[in-house]
Amino acid sequence: MFKNIIPKLNTLIFSSRVNISDFAFERSYIDTNPLEVFISLERYGVVILHNCIAEERVKRLKTNILNFLGRLNPDDEGRHEDYYVNHKQEKKLNYEEIMKLDKCFVNYREEDKLKIDGGMIDLFRVEKILDEEDQKLLSDIHQIYRPWLENFTGKSFSHFNIYHNEGVENTRGPHIDKARDQFKCMIYLTDVPNKDYGPYSYVPKSHKKKILLKISTLIQRMIKRLINDSQYRYDDMPIAENQLHSFLGKPGTIIISNQSGIHRGQPQKEGNLRIVLVDNYF
Fold it and tell me: Does the global pTM surpass 0.90?
């Protein structure tokens, strides 16, 4: 009984009837009318930009990332000449500690595929392992949106990292990121043609209802105490799946998202690969 309350309540509170075309743009809009893109980002909490980067440049970066991961021995924990590996989860570094590292940090989320995000790999300080051409790509990506994003949102660039998901079937459910304004610009490095590839998904306009988000988290904590069920975390936001808009796209597609809205990465089917370059703003 209690388990069904939160999804139903969230669906009632945060439901929004919109079309993905309301916040989908071609690259030209960034160059000619960034204000229109920002107004949509402010209104819906998310925008998707198509045909932003040449596929051959994106695929080159993807290939280099895969080659790097292919050279790793994930059981070989700790510091190496060009990178650090955290596989056994014996010591988890926080954000500040990771940002102080002078090398790429490879974080294997969970080895057990049955656990949340089991099989997912994070690469922080990814620029440390990139060659000059891929470094130039990061710079060119920033030229597309960074000036107007920082100007309109008041947030500053923090760091790039990589999400590598291959057959991650148990992704984390709908959630918010601590109900505070943080923006992520996600660049697909692989084709995401349908939901089986684990596209990024978002509940439009949910970022506008911050007081209601806080109330929902309070109710969840109370229910968790009543049923002693670890499925409810303070930032989880269970909601009907049809309220989440999934963002499909070709390599080079960019999604800009206000992380205080409800979002998730969809579960993948075994064998499907999704690699995302993530550009973070705080």
Answer: yes
249 DSSP β-pair partners: 192
What are the strands of the beta sheet with 200-202, ordered from one edge?
A: 245-247, 200-202, 263-265
Q: What is the pLDDT of residues 93-150, one digit of tens each?
A: 777 888 888 899 998 888 788 888 999 999 999 999 999 999 999 999 999 999 999 9
* Closest of 253, 261, 99 to residue 185, by C-alpha: 253
In a domain, 256, yes or no: yes
Tokens representing 226?
A: 């009543």
pLDDT tens string 144-169: 999 999 999 999 999 999 999 999 99
| Main-chain phi, psi angles of 227, to 5 degrees | -105, -5
Q: How far apart, in whole angstroms, are the C-alpha atoms of residue 44 and residue 17?
A: 11
CB 262 within 8 A of CB 176: yes
Q: What is the CATH number of the domain that holds 207?
A: 2.60.120.620
Go through 123-159 and write b for each residue having 16 or more CB atoms within 10 A of its CB, e for each that does not. bbbbeebbeeebeebbeebbebbbeebeebbebeeeb
**Residues spanned by the domain of 219:** 2-76+124-281
Query: Is 247 in contact with 199 (CB distance < 8 Å)?
Result: yes
How open is the CA angle 79-85-89, to the nearest 5 degrees? 120
Identify whether 276 is part of a domain: yes
208: Cβ–Cβ under 8 A, 6 or more apart, which residues?
45
Q: Give dist(CA 68, CA 129) in Å, integer.
A: 8
Asked if the structure places residue 98 within a domain, the reply is no
Q: Do residues 1 and 208 make contact, with C-beta atoms less than 8 angstroms apart?
A: no
> Can you say whether the dihedral through the CA atoms of 263, 24, 140, 156 is positive or negative?
negative
